[in-house]
């Protein structure tokens, strides 16, 4: 790490002085920048994104040096290996970050897209047109790449970003943010369009959740459950988030066993730590005699612990007893809860009672059963004959996502650039007045 | 009023006992009903709406008797004539209320509408489908028709409603709510799908704004500015509302005078008390020599007071001086503020500085100027060569609206049945797993 970049990074004890004044200034800067970014052309925003990717590549030595300092502190503090892994950058990871920014530039422009248009009998032409939301605050923890991903997604959608990094990734995030701001400046856009809170003071989070005097339009928490819970509890502004991904795979009575096996193993075990991972398997009693044992055995043989109801306990001695808590639990681990249900109604009722309205799947050859499951399960994403691990903006074709939301307001499911937009109505007349 | 219906109406001193327990129960009832209504067919919801219209007609004597009691109390309390007029029902107004409910039944069904669909290279078929929002709380003041309008719009969109009437319209609203519930029951839907808070206790509003323990998804205030301000200030749940309609008509340098005259007079004076009424006229200095005097004279001759800048003061002795407050003011009266601006940029800057992001219009024959105004004015509704009084869900072709929103989250502009919906993703596979 060069001494120059070290000097740019504020100290953790907040050399910036009063945090309230600092945050107020960030909010005002963001709002002023929002108007310029919101009316900038797609070409100018894309030029900034391309310059950001270039700057991230050029600044790689400084970013990696800052990351080595963050890592040294994290190791000295005895943080967990999984945390260290999320924090760590290397040449390859940094190149992936830069390429992701370049890829976001290449997405279709969401701003100004005509979402609907129609003509009334009086000749007025109405258009509903996508517009930016305004100022998006992103609060994240260990992954420094969020600085680049979130900043780029906000700019692509005509928004400005206020980013609050976890204190353990603060140096890395600060260097990445500097690269992003250079990209903005290179395209003639205000550096305030992507601001990283230049302080580790935890009071910054509280200020953001209060909305910075009306200068934040939405908050996106990116991190563990305790962060999301705090944001959902305290925020006085809208939040795009999910607290849990307690997702279900329901193997219906008319499910093909081979398909159910492939989907279940993928949904549970492809990656156990992602929010789209399955946490509970429901097997219909109509196929339990043929399907339950092979599915449970396959899970166990893959090293997945199985916590089951009585019927499941009976098929393999390695199964342990599931209690009420298990149906509520997002394990994010090689553990699954398994239950036999007496039919479609019971399966839907179980998902609605215990689920988190994130992502749930039915496996069946019966179209009518699939239609009912997809209609009546009130989750952001419902799938028929596909793995729950497709719960991802990239897999949806959104290019990238800033997170997944389980709220019902504005955004739901993967939040890509389209969901980071609001809309307005343009009305074109020839002198019409209202009678 | 019959003694029977009198007995159904709770007393103002809250014979229901603890208001907190009462409101908690309403919230739980609403959430339970939301699942049944949300999965009911369009046919069943429309059948309920038709039965509501019938019930409103059949119960007309009881509703009008209750209204006479409300009116007698309002007159005894010395309430303003404008308030009395909003409160008053007669045979014709009640028939219009019933017909409005029947008309809502005839609207296209918004629930289950496929908003977008696409296929990914792996064969997965994605659909974004409209779903109900859940529980909508509506807080209103004097107009008892809101009970029917809001209840019907919520049911049409698969939502349930918790309605809080102003205490002065409480008896009228209670009778209308009873008719709506009879319609629900006639179609086999739960009466809890439309609940009027059975108490005049003002603590009910506070409980609603706190969200009834997670059982309210959005609040819609319908009433004066003080109500809206309180709701926006205190609500812990999303709000669809507008505080102000400080709307502008900008007469550009290339505006046709006759068109500008017709639009201005209509925008300001067709009805002065609606939120789409114009409150400020901006005249471009490029046409001020020819357009300012005739426009100002026309306003004055129609009995509209004009508060102007120096240039406006010079054209007619009846003009009085506008001060800084005037540019901020939503008069809702026969008063207008008038200013000459040095061009399009200044006009946009004025609207952005003083406006309320509700509805703003440009009059011009210059398409490029119109395009810039429509793009850069950050209002829910922007019009070219048309009156601002088109700011209305009916005029948009939405059939009806529950209100007009100036927020940027989820709904913006007139909030019709489509904006009362959320969405989910349905994913159709043939056994796909994620690599």
Spans of chain A of at least 5 consecutive residues whose pLDDT stays below 50 are 1-16
Distance between the amino and carboxyl termini of chain A: 71 Å
Number of helices of chain A: 17
Q: In the CATH scheme, what's the topology name of the largest domain in chain A?
A: Aldehyde Dehydrogenase, Chain A, domain 1
Strand content of chain A: 15-25%
What does this protein look like?
The structure is a homodimer of 435-residue chains. Chain A is α/β, with parallel strands linked by helices. Chain A folds into 2 domains: 3-234, Aldehyde Dehydrogenase, Chain A, domain 1; 247-395, Aldehyde Dehydrogenase, Chain A, domain 2. Chain A is built from 17 helices and 16 strands. Chain A has helices at 3-8, 19-38, 42-58, 60-76, 81-87, 91-105, 145-156, 170-186, 203-210, 225-234, 257-269, 285-301, 310-313, 324-328, 344-354, 367-376, 393-396; strands spanning 114-119, 125-132, 135-140, 160-164, 194-196, 218-222, 247-251, 278-284, 305-308, 320-321, 335-341, 359-363, 381-386, 404-405, 413-414, 421-432. Chain A has a 7-stranded parallel β-sheet, sandwiched between helices. In chain A, α3 (42-58) runs antiparallel to α6 (91-105). Chains A and B meet through α11, α16, β13 and β16 of A and α11, α16, β13 and β16 of B.
